[in-house]
Structure formats: C-alpha cells, structure tokens
Crp/Fnr family transcriptional regulator (Streptomyces klenkii), 227 residues
Amino acid sequence: MEFEDRVPFVVRLEAEDRQALFRSATPLAFSARQVLLREHEPTAHVLILLSGWTKVTSAAANGYEALLALRGPGDIVGEAAVLSGRPRGATVTALGQVETLALDADRFSGLLDERPAISRKLLALTADRMRDSDRRRVQYAALNVQERLALLLLELIRSHGEEAEDGVQLTPGLTQSELAGSVGASREAVARLLKGLRERGIVRTGRRGLVVMRPDVLRRMARQGDR
C-alpha cells in the first residue's frame, strides 16, 4: 500500500497547467461508499479528487479484496487506464463524501499532448508510486502479520492522522476488512490482533474509528515483532 507518495498530482503542477486542467473538467460528487471507478470497466474519464478520501482496491477471483492505496485531495485516479487504453485495473471507492473533477479521456489525452509539462509530472508521479509499491513489497515480505499491521498503523497516523485527546485518530476510518486487505491477511486475523492491541491499551476503537494511543509500542512491534 502506498503512503510515501504524498505529494498529490495537482500540487506538482504549475499554476497555468493546473488551471488548464480544471477548465477542462466537470464537477462530480460521490457519497460515502459509492464507487467512483470500477475494476475491469471500459475507460471513459479520469478524476481529480478535490476533497474527501477514497480507497483503491483490486479483487481476486475468490473474492479477496486487496487494499492498494488511499487517494485524497489533489490526487488523480483513473489515469493509468486512459494512458494504456485498457479497462480499469482497480476499483476506487469513496470512504466519505468526495468531490471531484471529471475529465473526458480524449480531452485528458489532448491536454497531455498540448502541455508536455503535465505529461512529465504525471510520469514522475507514476514512477514515485511504482517505487513505493516495490519498497513495500520487499519490506512486507520480511514481516509477519502482526508486524505488518503495526507498520501500517504507524504509516497511517503519519500520513492520515489527526490529534485526539488520548492519541492520534486515523482518518479516514478503515474497516477491519480494509486493514486486512492492506496487510495481506484475513479479517479474522486482523480482528484478533486489534483485540489484543485494545486490551493492552495500545489502540482504542469507537464510532469515529481507530485511535493509536501508544505508537511507541507499535514501533517496537514493527521492528522486532514484540513477541
């Protein structure tokens, strides 16, 4: 799952290129848990996220859903399918209310031809995402599920955390199934691990999601397994 790549696409663009992109787009809003883009469907447009968070997932034949990335304000989604001319390679789902700008595939391709600087920034973004994905695969291969979950929670509070009274609140909130999909484990395994973390006062869960209360313990788990 990608977290290092936290410089959104829109922020990378020069003001003139950003304005050209926005002028060509149409506002489009999505409600919580609504699908923005669906895996395997034909490509028709790209989306620029203005507000809210989404999850990027891919489903296996047996129904297992892997969480590939989180995308938020300033990010672009759907661009890979437009560039390759192939069907969507993943599903993008709103985790809450999401506001976007939609660009027709042909218009987006035309902008890339007209404004090479946008193409270069998009290429750099793609390279950053691939590098981070490769790094994570290597890192996770050496860890067990508990260590992977600890590392995931640490990265989430660093990139998507908000200060709470007794710790750091994870935003956006992710379900146990979504956490499991990120660390390559079953929902039941993650549920057992979270139960243990709650009992030890390391995290707490509630209606607003998960709060990390003892990141120092998670850091030890991520390094040594805390066994």
Summary: The longest helix spans residues 116-141. The chain has a mean pLDDT of 89.
